[in-house]
Amino acid sequence: MKRIHACSVGALPEGEALRLDTEPTIALFHVGGEYYAINDRCSHGNASMSEGYIEDDATVECPLHSASFCLKTGKALCMPATEALQTYQVTVLEGAVFIDFTGGRLMSDLKDDVVLITGGGSGLGLALVARFIEEGARVATLERSAEKVSLLQQQFGEQVVVVQGDVTSFADNQRAVAMALSRFGRLDCFIGNAGIWDHNASLLATPAEQLESALTSCLPLTSKAICWAPKPVLRH
């Protein structure tokens, strides 16, 4: 563990945050006269917590999907985030703010591993694609939207194998596995990310007819996604 200098006491005004270019990156917050340090990358999506919405009760809301975290403990307080953020000890000494930090990559053992991710074109799926590539993994993804397929290819180029298809189609899942194997020669990891998010809709407040429609579309997709995708993967 090492102690790094973050800033001088006067450099970070009350109610604001500072992003530190450590690895992994750290967000430093000044709230209620106290300083808090957490991992800067949201545990749900590819967003910087230093750009989030800071509350007086020492919580911060992710600017991407509105997940909220406690700055004192790092605990995820609401969906869509479920995983806590790492916190770091902060020390104020002689007019300067220091953070006790253990550097190093969080996922370094993924280098050269091959991962197939469904629904890699947006949200958590896109964040997973970006992070696995950043950590040196070789990535393939199955994405339904032609527009998102094009954006993935523009953003990552030859770093990712992008297969346009539907997770509810067994043939499309087979094709994604085949293309990943053809390009990389093996598969080490599969992440069944594709699905439908209800945007924290209230069961009580949702009309029955709307709920029936949602369940009719959601359940078949989810059931097929968790069966069709892993089946061809498990053969390899």
Descriptive notes:
The chain is of the alpha+beta class and 236 residues long. The chain folds into 2 domains: 2-101, Rieske [2Fe-2S] iron-sulphur domain (Rieske Iron-sulfur Protein, 3-layer Sandwich); 114-227, NAD(P)-binding Rossmann-like Domain (Rossmann fold), CATH 3.40.50.720. Helix content is 27%, strand content 27%. The protein contains 5 helices and 14 strands. The two termini are 40 Å apart. Residues 104-108 have low confidence and may be disordered.
Strand order of the largest sheet: 2-3-4-8
CATH topology name of the largest domain, in short, is: Rossmann fold
What is the 3D form? globular
Based on CA atoms alone, the radius of gyration comes out at 21 Å
In which range does the helix fraction lie? 25-40%
- Segments where pLDDT lies below 50 for 5+ residues? 104-108
Count of DSSP H/I helices:
5
Q: SSE order, as H and E?
A: EEEEEEEEEEEHEHEHEHH
- Overall mean confidence score, pLDDT: 86
Beta-strand portion reads 25-35%
Number of domains: 2
Q: What is the tally of beta strands? A: 14
CATH superfamily of the largest domain: NAD(P)-binding Rossmann-like Domain
Biggest β-sheet: count, sense, barrel? 4 strands, antiparallel
The assigned CATH architecture of the largest domain is 3-Layer(aba) Sandwich
Kindly name the structural category.
alpha+beta
| Span of the ends, CA to CA | 40 Å
Which CATH class of the largest domain applies here?
Answer: Alpha Beta
Protein name: Digoxigenin ferredoxin subunit
Keywords: 2Fe-2S, Iron, Iron-sulfur, Metal-binding, Oxidoreductase
Domain Rieske: 4-99
GO molecular function: 2 iron, 2 sulfur cluster binding; metal ion binding; oxidoreductase activity
